[in-house]
Amino acid sequence: MQRIALGLAYDGSGWRGWQTQPGGTGVQDALEAALQQFLGHECPTICAGRTDTGVHALSQVVHLETPKHRELQSWVRGLNALLPDSVAVQWAQPVSADFHARYGARSRTYLYVVRQAAVRSPLLRERTGWVFQPLNLEAMQQAVLALPGQHDFSSFRSSQCQAASPVRTMTAASVTQQGVFYVFRFTANAFLHHMVRNLVGALLYIGMGRQAAQWMAELLLQRDRRLAAPTFSPSGLYLAGVDYDPVHGLPTGNIEATWAQHLPWFS
């Protein structure tokens, strides 16, 4: 048996999230069906982060085990010939038996893109979030400073979240503006269900002037989801990168280059 890591990108708008679903509507279903055709046997997969319905991935990482041997380029080209157009393998690499796509991840980075304009764009439907109200970048940048560190993120946790603890360690959080696009970036050891969408919802309330910048720090202390902003749309959310120990040699380190490859209009 050998263990293989795959890097995936996908448009999540037509899928019920990563995880396998009745009727085969999860990205995992599509990948495992392609693997069965490619390898000739059932091949369960484990991913770095289970994205929700409508959420995209620029750099999802998956591992699997198989007794079959294929050239690395065959993993990419062969699987992509069997996958739907909305899912594509970006790279393949053999890894040691102790590599684990989920438990071996040191951090995950999510990117959320919001387009601020008076009128929605049908060409960016399900690619970005959209707000028509003007946004105060400085207020959002001040608010996001409260997020790095170890916190109880209960105020930003879905009621359906199954995580054993609401405590997470966020190592970086930022908001930048690129023309009409506002880019929200979060890096943490792990994320709770709907956590990024709930953080973005709160930051947008601050950007719109509905709340002051210090509201973010207050929500962290209150630990009450009912007091925060509504969950924002999944349309502009991307799993942008997963970080592993360099010993594995995976091509996941340059998140900016990955963004520029897939999302050049706001990279």
Automatic annotation (TrEMBL):
Catalyzed reactions: uridine(38/39/40) in tRNA = pseudouridine(38/39/40) in tRNA
Residues the record lists as binding substrate: Y110
SUPFAM superfamilies in UniProt: Pseudouridine synthase (SSF55120)
KW tRNA processing (keyword) present: yes
Assigned keywords, A-Z: Isomerase, tRNA processing
Boundaries of every Pseudouridine synthase I TruA alpha/beta domain copy: 10-103, 144-245
Gene Ontology MF, one: tRNA pseudouridine(38-40) synthase activity
Family the UniProt entry places it in: Belongs to the tRNA pseudouridine synthase TruA family.
Reported function: Formation of pseudouridine at positions 38, 39 and 40 in the anticodon stem and loop of transfer RNAs.
Protein's name according to its UniProt entry: tRNA pseudouridine synthase A
Native species: Mesopusillimonas faecipullorum
Gene this protein is translated from: truA
